[in-house]
Recover the amino acids of this structure.
């Protein structure tokens, strides 16, 4: 499996509709006569989603599977078993990325996948959908007797969420050579655990080398996690790219003292500049408008007691924008503001960068293929950017890449109430199977598309 496959001769999107018979024998609509004809089995996909969600279950129907915890290990075991059941060749690399490969045809594989780690208050679709839909794509193609010209792989990538270990998308970043494996393995998480130790402990430090070989193409199905598709009444998003992401950790340090006896003018209270930064981030995001967002997701005073002026506050700042110049401006303003506010309160402040990713553009030809495939299935579709980070944005560095979005009810995600209607899951997976089929057979014109 090498990147050389992308230079193969291919045909244009408009002629590339899959030609296999619908495995269910359903009569094709007029819109799909010459178009996408493969179909996934929604029952099987839903059963797998339910089974996986029952690992690390939390109230409200979601899951809690922080990366490399026991729950993550159990989920890995289940999905890897399913890969084996489909006859896939399973490989595990040194950062714990797991890929199941349907060894068929020749050349570099079409790779699909996502992640199965969650935030501590996660839903059951974020990431899991992309992995389980990938399994379903392979199972449906196998059952239909289809024989793709190139291998098809499905992967789950370690620590996409970044909620326990930063940066997020760690596994896919290592896969594409964007982060040295030694550095990733040495990462210490919010609970003091080290990635290398946790990988060993759960048995997912594998022998497959990384960086990994470039796939022919990478496609990720994911819930939108935002309100755009639902508000527009659309069924599918053809994702054009991912906005830039900047994560920082600030530690404000002051002087711990008695809450009752210390006069206000004699305090060096680090919760003051920390709170000012939180509010300024929100204010600035409103001022800039558009896609600019700013979030303080973690805010921890120490010692966190009712009658003690904190000695320190550790907080995170997540700022994102699709325009990197604007994002750099926001970082500059807020980082300076933190210093100024700390000094005003007689405190010190230190900043540590947890993650910094520039905006990513996906491959126009695959974005176009997603759009054409959805239209061919009679689904409403629009091109749109992603607000969330995804493994696909890392793969875009080494191979032609795109994503398929399906609507999120009430735009909710990173919340156990995260929900996507099964009809939408089915639509998204049907787009995925036909996009994968096109890429793995006749293909689209991807010549020279590898991004070095
Ligand atoms: C990943 O879920 C992100 O924070 O965008
Ligand atoms: Mn995700
Ligand atoms: Mn997520």
């Amino acid at each position: 499996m090498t990147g050389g496959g992308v230079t193969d001769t291919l045909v244009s999107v408009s002629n590339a509709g899959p030609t296999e018979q619908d495995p269910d024998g359903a009569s094709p609509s007029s819109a799909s006569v010459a178009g996408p004809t493969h179909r996934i089995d929604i029952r099987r996909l839903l059963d797998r989603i339910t089974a996986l969600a029952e690992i690390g279950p939390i109230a409200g129907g979601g899951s809690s599977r922080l990366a490399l915890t026991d729950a993550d290990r159990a989920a890995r075991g289940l999905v890897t078993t399913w890969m084996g059941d489909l006859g896939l060749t399973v490989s595990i690399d040194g950062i714990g990325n797991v890929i199941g490969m349907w060894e068929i045809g020749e050349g570099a594989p079409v790779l699909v996948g996502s992640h199965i780690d969650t935030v501590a208050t996660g839903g059951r679709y974020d990431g899991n959908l992309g992995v389980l839909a990938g399994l379903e794509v392979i199972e449906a193609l196998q059952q239909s007797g289809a024989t793709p010209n190139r291998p098809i792989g499905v992967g789950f990538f370690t620590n996409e969420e970044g909620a326990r270990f930063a940066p997020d998308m760690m596994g896919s970043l290592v896969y594409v050579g964007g982060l040295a494996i030694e550095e990733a393995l040495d990462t210490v998480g919010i609970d003091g655990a080290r990635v290398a130790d946790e990988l060993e402990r759960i048995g997912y430090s594998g022998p497959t080398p990384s960086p990994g070989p470039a796939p022919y193409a990478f496609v990720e199905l994911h819930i939108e996690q935002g309100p755009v598709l639902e508000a527009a009444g659309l069924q599918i998003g053809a994702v054009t790219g991912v906005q830039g992401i900047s994560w920082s950790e600030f530690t404000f340090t002051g002087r711990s003292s008695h809450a009752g006896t210390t006069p206000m003018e004699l305090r060096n209270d680090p919760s003051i500049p920390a709170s000012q930064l939180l509010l300024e981030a929100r204010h600035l995001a409103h001022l800039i408008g558009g896609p600019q967002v700013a979030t303080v997701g973690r805010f921890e005073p120490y010692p966190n007691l009712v009658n003690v002026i904190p000695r320190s506050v550790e907080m995170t700042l997540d700022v994102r924008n699709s325009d990197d110049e604007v994002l750099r401006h926001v970082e500059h303003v807020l980082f300076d503001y933190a210093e100024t506010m700390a000094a005003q309160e007689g405190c010190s402040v230190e900043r540590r960068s947890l993650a910094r990713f520039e905006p990513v553009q996906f491959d126009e030809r695959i974005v176009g293929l997603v759009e054409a495939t959805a239209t061919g299935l009679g689904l409403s579709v629009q091109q749109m950017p992603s607000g969330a980070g995804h493994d696909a944005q890392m793969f875009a560095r080494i191979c032609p890449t795109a994503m398929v979005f399906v609507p999120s009810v009430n735009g909710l995600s990173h919340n156990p109430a995260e929900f996507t209607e099964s009809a939408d899951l089915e639509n998204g997976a049907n787009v995925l199977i036909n996009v994968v089929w096109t890429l793995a057979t006749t293909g689209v014109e991807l010549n020279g598309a590898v991004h070095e």
